[in-house]
Amino acid sequence: MATFAKPENALKRAEELINVGQKQEALQALHGLITSKRYRAWQKTLERIMFKYVELCVDMRRGRFAKDGLIQYRIVCQQVNINSLEEVIKHFMHLATERAELARSKAQALEEALDVDDLEADNRPEDLMLCYVSGEKWKDRSDREMVTPWFKFLWETYRTVLEILRNNSKLEGLYAMTAHRAFQFCKKYKRTTEFRRLCEIIRNHLANLNKYRDQRDRPDLSAPESLQLYLDTRFEQLKVATELALWQEAFRSIEDIHALMCMVKKTPKASLLVIYYAKLTEIFWISSSHLYHAYAWLKLFSLQKSFNKNLSQKDLQLIASSVVLAALSVSPYDCSYGASHLELENEKERKIRVANLIGFNVEPKPESRELLSRSSLLSELVAKGVMACVTTEVKDIYHLLEHGFHPLDLASQVQPFLTKISKLGGKLSSASSVPEVQLSQYVPSLEKLTTLRLLQQVSQVYQTMKIETLSGMIPFSEFAVVEKIAVDAVKNNFISIIIDHMKGAVFFGSQGLESEGLRSHLSSFVESMSKVRNLIYSPVKKTSKLGETLSSLPDVVEKEHKRLLARKSIIEKRKEEQERHLLEMEREEESRRLKLQKITEEAEQRRLASEYERRKNQRILREIEERELEEAKALLQEAEKRSKKKGKKPIIDGEKITKQTLMELALSEQLRERQEMEKKLQKLAKTMDYLERAKREEAAPLIEIAFQRRLVEEKDIHEREQQREIELSRLRHTGDLEEKKRLSEKLGNKKIFQERVVSHREAEFNKLKKDRQEQISQIIRSRKSERETRRKMIYYMKMEEDRMKKLQEEEEARQREEAERRKEEEAKRKAKLDEIAEKQRQRELELEEKEKRRKEEVLQMRPTNVPANAAHSGQPRTMDSAPSQGGKYIPKHRRTQAESAPPPQDQSPVHRGGGNRMDDRADKWRDDRRPVSGIVGGTRSTFLSSRSRGER
After folding, report:
1. Distances from the Cα of 333 to the Cαs of 291, 327, 403, 449, 650, in angstroms?
2. Which of 114-128, 467-481, 620-634 has the highest mean pLDDT?
3. Which of these, 17, 3, 101, 99, lies nearest to 60 by C-alpha position?
4. 175-189, 292-306, 907-921: lowest mean pLDDT where?
5. Residue 189 has pLDDT above 60, yes or no
6. 635 or 585: whose pLDDT is higher?
7. How many other β-carbons are positioned within 10 Å of the β-carbon of residue 891?
8. Crossing angle for the helix pair 443-461 and 392-402, nearest 10 degrees?
């Protein structure tokens, strides 16, 4: 990059390069000079260089170079000569706009030149071939080649200028002018996309302006001039948005205006508020928000009536009629019926937001929020006197739709008024913000409201009506439209109506759509027919070899499916765990970075805040000292002036005293002067007191004379008024007598008419009374039958309960008797067993005694000289008989012991034989008792069965 000793050399070098056709090199040379740090002191040569620089940027369509150069030039002349930057920017925008217009005019001229009958005369064959192949028109091609690049550059120019001037308090006017030019560019060429971007850019500029409040050259929105510029920009944005039919962007512009006013806590002028509410009426009408549209009209009416002094009576009447018709166009029911809780909360927030926009509360408080509704709107219209300003047709249709009850001819009465209202409207002469009012736009909404009112009133009178009759009662709508309106009203719980096209009737009232018994009649019929078919044609069951072979296939498939699902869930869990781990690591890293950044920012903010506080305190202290010194000097000068006037010597030399001395001298002088003034005032008050007392003493007799004269005059006036009242009463009495004589002639006709009306009403009353008595008697009969049925049911339930209770008591008594009987049998059995055992013991004792005696007899009868072999030969028989009797084998060595000594009782054969016999008897007793228990059990079961049959 070449360096220049002086800026003039760079300008000369650029002009030389331009003359030889090297514009790019010239632009680079100027760009290097402007961005260089050597030339940061502003001078007039730099301004000429910037003019040449922006010309080159426009010629070559280099928006980026232009932006860089303007930013650097802003840094140079921000504190020295800001007007130079303004001139350069204006020149830049003028060149870009001029070149864009020139390209558009050339394209238009080319299009007009090509609009001839013979295309081959003015075009080459390849151009015609390209036109037919690509399907483009000449205008599209010329626009794309010539106009579009310059329009892009112009749009980039506007964005660049707005970006440079966004935070410059010294060039607020230029910023507003650029925004207005950009709005007009979008409006002229129908650039809706660029308009949305432009609105977003301006919105972001304001947000950043509020976000970063510590900037040096930040505009002060509290200043009236700055606020007015920002407001004018927003209102121009609102106007262009409505003209381009960008209603969403228009609503956001309304919110921008309201947010700007809330930011500065100030309400705009009435002239701007009129535009604000006029655009709100259009936005809400396009969005079908009729309630908010009516509220906006009411606000607009109040503003026009209060602040527009040039408003004529005709214009006021049209605006008031629009307010009333807009209020009547609101749906009479709440469209949020049956909505979910989330939808209701969103609707509530939306209502609060729109209420703040309509009410224009710069400091909205929750307790002061009014609920926007149709009923409150109509009551507010009456309270504010809007109904007194409307036309006769609007007033009549209001009374018909809101207070009248004409179920049969409501639509026929409303239709003439709708015809007249559709012709009302026109341009307003004095309300510039509302150029035209057309009441015909409310006719469809009024027709819908008329239909709803008619259906509501008819449902209160009739229960059933033919469709043809109902359609004939609504002449301005087809029955399909009426049906659609009725469905919407039923959906929102406004009326209850059922339309039966098969019967050709309409049913009013809360009737069920179908009875409970017939709700599922089709499914019941299908099931019954299926059973009948299965009974007639029984299905043949064929054995399937494949089914037998693969009987376990569903279980295998189910297990495999479960295994795959489990494996899939495990894989998903692993993936989720891995993702969660990665997210946690990223989150920790991000939190660590944010924490470090936050610590750095907080430290920087604390340093800046402390520095700012220190400078602020120093400035405040310095200002306080300067102010005190100025006040002391002023007090000293005043004291010196007063002392000079009075011919006194000056108090003290000003160079030899301090500030504190000056303050004390000035205060002492003020105190002395105040005391002298109080003395003068006391003397003057005393003098005034004497003068006032003397004046009152002189005026007292004159007041008495005037009072007496006034009494005489009022007495004469009273007598004259009384005489005139007597004459008027006499004349009025004479007229009343004549009127009575005239009306007495028609007394007979009056009595005849009265008797006719009374008889007709008496007959109607008797008929209604008779119908009422029949209805009451029918209700009494039905209720009597219901009571009888209920009484029988209660009696039957009571008897059934007594019977069940009696059966339960009998069962419990039987169980108790059975238990007692079982206990008695058990006791008897035990006693019998004890008795048998006792007898057995007695018998055993007797047998033992007998055996003992027998053994003693045998031993006594045995001879003493019996040989050994004889004794030995006789022993085996004795021993052999013992085992046969006792059933047990005795060894030989025990046999010798038994012969030598008598056996004990527990080992004697007699005792063992007795024990065996006792066991045999016990077994026999058990065998004998089994049939007895079976007989008893059978008898008991027979008894129970017979008893149960008797109870049945």
Report:
1. 11, 13, 16, 10, 87
2. 467-481
3. 99
4. 907-921
5. yes
6. 585
7. 8
8. 30
Using an 8 Å Cβ cutoff, are 332 and 349 in contact? no
CA distance 738 to 655: 107
Residues 6+ apart with CB under 8 A from 386: 298, 301, 320, 323, 324
Q: Are 511 and 498 in contact (CB under 8 A)?
A: yes
Residue 577, both tokens: 């765990």
Q: Judge contact between 332 and 494, C-beta under 8 A.
A: yes
What are the structure tokens assigned to 529, written together?
């027919």
Digit-coded pLDDT (tens) for 867-918: 444 434 444 443 444 444 444 455 555 554 544 444 444 444 334 344 444 4
What separation, in Å, do the N-terminal and C-terminal C-alpha atoms of the chain show?
125
User: Any residues with CB less than 8 A from the CB of 347 and at least 6 apart, and which?
Assistant: 336, 339
- How far is residue 234's CA from residue 179's CA, in Å, rounded to a whole number? 10
Strand, coil or helix: 369: coil
Q: ∠ CA(432), CA(436), CA(439), 5° rounding?
A: 140
* Sequence-ordered list of residues with C-beta below 8 angstroms from that of 250, at least 6 positions apart, any chain: 238, 241, 242, 279, 282, 283
Nearest of 434, 523, 508 to residue 469 by alpha carbon: 508
Q: Which of 301, 296, 573, 328 is nearest to 443 (CA)?
A: 328
CA distance 384 to 302: 9
Measure the CA–CA gap between 471 and 505, rounded to whole angstroms: 11
Distance CA(99)–CA(242), nearest Å, equals 29
Q: What is the mean pLDDT of residues 547-566?
A: 74
How many whole angstroms separate alpha carbon 461 and alpha carbon 463? 7
Comparing C-alpha atoms, which of 445, 442, 448, 446 is closest to residue 487? 448
Please, which residues have CB within 8 angstroms of residue 885's CB and are 6 or more apart in sequence? 909, 910, 913
Q: Are 192 and 209 in contact (CB under 8 A)?
A: no
Q: Is the pLDDT of residue 124 over 60?
A: no
* pLDDT reading at 806 higher than 90: yes
Under DSSP, the state recorded for 147 is I
Q: In Å, what is the CA distance from 747 to each residue of 303, 740, 741?
A: 57, 10, 10
Task: Tell me the C-alpha distance between 704 and 466, whole Å.
Answer: 89
Residue count of the chain, please give it: 952
| Residue found under tokens 């009549």 | 396
Q: How open is the CA angle 413-419-420, to the nearest 5 degrees?
A: 100
CB 325 within 8 A of CB 346: no
The two tokens of residue 667 are 């205060």
Mean pLDDT of 520-528: 74
Whole-angstrom Cα distance, residue 387 to residue 384?
8
Cβ–Cβ < 8 Å for 653, 665: no
DSSP, res 906 = T
How high is the mean pLDDT of the chain? 77
3-class DSSP assignment, residue 326: helix
Give me the residues paired with residue 497 across strands: 508
Task: Report the C-alpha gap between 468 and 466 in whole angstroms.
Answer: 5
Long-range contacts of the stretch 869-873 (C-beta < 8 A, 24+): none
Listed in sequence order, the DSSP H helices in 537-552 are 545-549
Greatest Cα-to-Cα distance within the chain, rounded to the nearest angstrom:
198
Per DSSP, the three-state class of 426 is strand
| Dihedral sign for Cα atoms in the order 840, 842, 848, 854 | negative
The phi-psi region of residue 663 (left if phi > 0; otherwise alpha if psi is between -120 and 50; otherwise beta) is alpha
Provide the 3-class DSSP secondary structure of residue 542: coil
The gap from C-alpha 805 to its chain's centroid, in whole angstroms, comes to: 60
Tokens standing for residue 315:
């214009």
Amino acid in the structure at residue 153: F
What is the C-alpha radius of gyration for the chain, rounded to an integer number of angstroms?
60
